[in-house]
Specification:
Layout lengths: L12 H10 L11 H5 L1 H5 L6 E4 L7 H7 L3 E6 L2 H10 L4 E5 L7 E5 L4 E5 L7 H4 L2 E7 L10 H10 L1 E10 L17 H7 L1
Parallel strand pairs: 1-2, 1-6, 2-5, 6-7
Antiparallel strand pairs: 3-4, 4-5
Catalytic activity: S-adenosyl-L-methionine + a thiopurine = S-adenosyl-L-homocysteine + a thiopurine S-methylether
Main location: cytoplasm
GO cellular component, one term: cytoplasm
Amino acid sequence: TDIGSQKDRVVTEEEWLQKWEMGNIGFHKEQVHPLLQKYLDVLLSGKSGLRIFFPLCGKAVEMKWLADMGHSVVGVEVSEQALKEFFSEHSLPYCEEPVPEISGAKKLQSTSGNISLYCCSIYDLSSSIVGKFDGVWDRGALVAVNPCDRQRYVSLMITLMEKSSSYLLVTVSYDPNKHEGPPFYVPESEIKSLF
C-alpha cells in the first residue's frame, strides 16, 4: 500500500501539453484496448444508445469505436492538439464552440453529434455542463491525475454517474519506488476506499 515518493509528485497542465506537443505520448494506443473489448458487456449491460464518458481522453480510438456502435461519447482533455488529432485521424468533420460556463474552454463536436470533446481541465466540468453518464471508460485517467488530486477526481466522477452506470477502470501494478509516474501506482485498497 506504500506509494513511495509518488504521493507528493505533481505533474502540471503545462507538462501534459508539452507531452502532446513533443509527441511524447507513449500512453496513446492505436488499437482498441483489449480489456475494453473483453469487458464491453459489463460497460454496456446489453443496452444501446448509452452516454459514455472518457476522462482525460487524449485521442483515444475507443471513442470512435463506441460511437460507431451507436453510443454517445463525451470526453475531456486539456490538450486541444490531441482533440484535433482525434478528429483528423478518423476523418471526422467537427465544429467548435465555446463553453459559456467555463472560461477559455471549447467543445469540439462531431458533425454527426455523437462525439463531444471538451477542451479544459476536468475539474472545470460538472453534471450541469455535461450531464450524467451510463458508463465511464477510465484507461489512463485515475493513474494520470496527481496522487494529491485523487479524492477530488473520484468525487467528481461519482457526481457524473447515473445510479445504474458502469465504471471500467484500468490501472497498472508496479513498484512505485522504482518509477516516479505517471502512470501512477494506485493500490487496490486505495481504489476501494476512493470509490
